[in-house]
Records
---
Amino acid sequence: MLEALVKRFKPLPENSTLLILGGGFSGQCIGALARALGAKVICTRRDINQPGADFVFNSENQTLPPQEALVEITHLLSCIPPTSSGKDPVLSCLQNQLQELPLKWAGYISTTGVYGDRQGEWVTELDTPKPQQERSKRRLACEQDWEASGLPVQILRLPGIYGPGRSAIEIVQAGKTKMVHKPNQIFSRIHVEDIAGATMHLIQLAAKGKRPRVINIADDRPSSNTEVLTYAASLTGNSLPPIEPFEVASQSMSPMALSFWQENRRVSNQMLCKELGYCLLHPDYKSGLLDCFLQNK
Ligand SMILES: NC(=O)c1ccc[n+]([C@@H]2O[C@H](COP(=O)([O-])OP(=O)(O)OC[C@H]3O[C@@H](n4cnc5c(N)ncnc54)[C@H](OP(=O)(O)O)[C@@H]3O)[C@@H](O)[C@H]2O)c1
């Protein structure tokens, strides 16, 4: 479906070079779209043998890309999460070098976890973040460091990311699904191709002088986990276990899984889709999962 996005955008200006720090699941997809639009893309991973790695960047052992790799970068995207001590890996290792670049745009991928629990209410970029989880507090601190960096940065806040090879399709196919019911609990999500599409849309708007500080990138339809798994199973033909109440299921959940169920919010995409005019490729989980299912075939 990346072709559908390629048709929507004008090529990036000649001589555009996008540096993707942390070319994992989202970074790879964004890089593929930028390349298809004619940009030179340079991608870092922690191991040169990983797919898409042009250079190694690993803040944990201070392996930095060579100086000559970081010249003439016009666009920059960090997809790297905070360290366990709350530092931003990119700023703590590369900030001085980045400040020397002829940057037109810098994106920092963050999470909607910074909003904390909203008891199922909608959250917009105008709401003050109230992170509850320690990792979300670290994330907000990194957002603030990026904003203070003096780089032309835009913060992209994402909910649960899914896409081909990493979605409810694989979960139901693995046969390890849990159908957990917690009344009124919903989750927001975004298909990885819409992260790529929205990023490109934002880069092109920034070139016209429109660069809001923070943007949520989420689909139109926050939904319960059981709804999403039921639809995935209807595509794959897998059977699902009976529904378990949250009180029971939570007893065997990992602390990480439990932390996701402690927060409930609907992430608004009004700024991205209404004010800034981005048209979602996958407005809801049905469109997105069908795409994942068909791409896996
Ligand atoms: N997964 C979700 O549902 C979700 C939701 C909201 C926001 N986010 C955030 O969105 C961003 C992109 O998510 P994703 O799922 O695409 O992530 P991903 O596939 O895990 O990619 C993260 C990238 O960061 C790199 N990295 C991690 N620690 C590093 C360090 N200390 N030094 C250098 N590189 C480091 C990884 O290196 P390798 O390539 O070597 O692994 C990888 O390329 C992440 O910040 C993530 O926390 C994720």
---
Amino acid sequence: MNFSQNPLKKRIFLALATLPFLGVVAAFGIAPDTASENISRETVVETLALQAAQPSDNGAFDFWREERIGRGETLPSLLQRLGVNAEDRQEFISAVRQSKSIGGLIPGRSVLARVSSSGRLLLLRYLVSDTTLVSVNRIKESFQVTQQTIQAEMRPIMRSGFVQGSLFGATDAADVPDKIASEMAEAFSGDIDFHKDLRRGDHFSVVYEAFYFDGQLIKTGRLLAAEFTNEDKAYRAVYFKDPQGRDGYYSAEGQSLKRAFLKSPMPFDRISSGFSVARLHPVLNIWRSHKGVDYAAPTGTPVRAVSDSVVSFVGKQGGYGNLIVLNHQSPYSTAYGHLSRFGKGIKRGGKVSQGQVIGYVGATGLASGPHLHYEFRINGDQRNPLAMKLPTAYPLDSRYRAQFAAQAQPLTARLNLLRNTNLSKLD
Ligand SMILES: [Zn+2]
């Protein structure tokens, strides 16, 4: 695309490139990937939706942020995560206290806000129940709180983008919410280690639910379908819930994407990704003489079991520091070293399920800085997990295949459409 033909989009790109993304970098005190984040915004600018950044009255740019309410979360901490400045946090809290409409924050529900680059809160929408919407609008220097009964309408949203520096750089630029980016990483977590496998030029398409009322976005739903092309190999995921209520992601052919082993013991989120994907280097450099894979991440980042297992060791062991060894189905075992602490209830002989948090990143033992040292072992010998083909795939229950095919068809048609659009952009 030629920028000169579209001055509005060009202006938006320039504004985005010069603004840190709502202090995300600053919030975690790291900036390993700042330069490449800017590059990735430039390359996917044509998929950037205009609603992502809108000039406000003073000419600055505003952002839509959506955050999920955490367990035990307070209103001040939620507003801070949304990027709201101290002055508006205080103002907002006294406004809602008077109206009494935001009683308690319900964990797991999400809050959508439009915030200016200087942290001015312009608008906030909170779906207290599926049919009760609380809206807070800025009227000059005060906030007006309204509560209404609504019927939300679901509209699928399609987005796509190219990876230049990091996955979150690319999803930001394509205006894909973090929640959807993480769900995509999770859906492909049996096939792709997003910390290590990601390459420049990888691309993705997503179809996800968005709920609207009165023409306005009130919340993002779940990822419905995704395609991720990693090193020229395309993976697809389609969401399906069977009549018994079991749900998950499947290939377009109806193979479950759930694997006996996760590709990575590190969940993929914005915090941990900022550390490792700054270096998009080949696997050769990672698999070093010490026969393990290192994941740099802040102390305290959760570490998860890659497969169902029994704990065979938990405690201190020489250079490994705090170590956990898990035995999986024979002949596989995995080891997790340098942990700062162990997960709740992790003890020798105990059962652990896939994805369960077993400990937290640290720098105990011989470690120059906080990281996870991860080993994959076959009959006790270390192997490179990044280079391994592991046992796979449970097919979908044959009773539901017709139903799956009917639901998957329109979603894969959308992915095809996005793929063709992507390819034509490359020409
Ligand atoms: Zn190591």
